Amino acid sequence: MPAGELNDKIIMNTRHYKKKKYTKNNGRLLMKQKSPSLIVFIGFLLLAVNVITGKVFAQEKQRFISDEIIAQNGNRVISHIINLKTKADKVQIINTLPEGKAGVDINNKPYFKTITINSKEQLSKIELTNEPIWIIEGVLPKTKKLKADDSPFGFHPAAINRRDYSYAQDIGVTWDRGGLYFMWILVQPDITKGYNWQRFDEYFKILPSGMLPLKNITVAFDGMVNVKGRRSPPGKVRREEVDLSQHLEGTTYRPKDKNAYSAWVKAAVERYDGDGIDDMPGLQTPAKHWQVDNEPPRLREGYADLALITSKAIKEADVEAKVLIGGLQLPCGEEGKVRNYYQTQAPLLKELDGKAIDIVDFHWFGLAGEWKMLPEAMKIVKDDLRKYGFNNIPIWFTEMGTYSGKPSGFRGKNLPLQSEREQASEMIKRYTVALSEGVKKIFWAWGMKEGFQNINDNDFFDNTGFIYDGLGTNDSGNGIKKVIYYAHKKMAQLLQYWDGNAPEKIETDKNIFAYRFRFNSLEDIGIIVAWIND
Fold first, then answer.
1. What is the mean pLDDT of the chain?
2. Which has the higher per-residue pLDDT, 502 or 124?
3. What is the pLDDT of residue 293?
């Protein structure tokens, strides 16, 4: 058996028992017969009943233990016992989620159940459930390997109310996709006049040391453009209409004055690139990653032209800068998402033909359980990236999320109730599978704290945050941290010791999933995350 291979050895606990049926006639027959052979038969029967009863009582006892786990966690938990082969002398097992149904039970005092098992002949018996566990092989290294630049942990946005980064820092977030988009229309409303950087300078003044920015840059925010035939979702906050006649060609993405737009892009990148030339006064953390608009094409034309113009200007101002395509929809989940990818997203990649973009970004929202669909979706996009000239290009997810509670709906569809523990488990699984598929950065969205645009409509994005805002029927109270908050913090703490390379999927039986985050490429040990798909 290869090192690290997991084999399922024990079938999950059964709760169904066959009952024998006895009739009155059977009873009378037994009373009338008194032969020695019958007495022997009765003796064997009584013995068998005792044995069976003992087994049933034992199984009933085990069943009660399972019921206690179910009551404690608030979800159905079914367990497997697996054998883990490892090169370590011992393993430490840590639950990925703290004890308690919800964050209100945890009350800022998370307890992660932890046990240590000595590996007899490098073999350890470990219990798995559908809630993942961390398995540390041996002891954690003395030094942390993962630097801020290499960390995959981002948030969209990381700050609460655009100012408070303390929670993001507490849970190990190092990338921020927050603040206003850099928009030409905001910095230079009249293209015959100068630039006003005040509101963007404010973002960089607040950004704490060690928090790396990803900044969106475009002519104007898509919501400012009145596109014929495009409907706004019910309850969406209406934005003030803006005169874009100097800046855009109609409702397309194309800047009306390409030279003026390019000059503005160069000035923006130069001001915040940290090279000491024309920098913002007091700049501490430079911007080295720029994303061209967001989620094209939205029934608009000309995105590829915008990307080519913007990328060229960015590179002329800062040769070290990296350019991201606006977030594309991942073909993962419901049929409509897959169809939209083929109809609107893949054609953008084809049109760009391997140009302008250094990093491809995909957005991935949905329900608990959709982590299983990611490998197939990644195969689709990787094949298309190779086909359209983007071979081996880095892939980021700058928006990924699922919710807890029961939102009012999403795009006209009812959504099921999801517990805090289901949300947290899905987060761990999505991070793990995405990283194993080669995704480099992942930004949870939307928001560290609940609340999105119209905070009173209880939509999908009002329920994705890590901290409650005090609104809604399933809300535990303003400022209460959800289970997912503590789970993310534990994940980021442990993976500081990971070498940063894609975790390897360990070959297992069909319903067991296990991935190893290596401490280094030379050793066959690390931190394993594992769960069963029940």
1. 87
2. 502
3. 98
Asked if residue 123 is part of any domain, the answer here is yes
Helix, strand, coil share of the chain (percent; to 5): 35, 20, 45
Counting the structural domains of the chain, the total is: 1
Residue 410 DSSP class: B
- Residues with Cβ within 8 Å of 59's Cβ and at least 6 positions away in sequence, in order, are 13, 14, 15, 17
Domain of 27 in residue numbering reads as 1-142+506-534
Residue 247 included in any domain: no
Q: Give the residue among 200, 209, 220 at the shortest CA–CA distance from 270.
A: 200
CA distance 367 to 154: 20
Closest CA to 317 of 274, 257, 357, 350: 274
Does the structure show a pLDDT above 50 at 36?
no
With CA atoms as reference, report the closest residue to 287 among 395, 213, 393, 197: 213
Token digits of residue 286: 């430079």
pTM across the whole model? 0.85
Strands 182-183 and 212-218: parallel
In a domain, 273, yes or no: no
Q: How many CB atoms sit inside 10 A of residue 417's CB?
A: 11
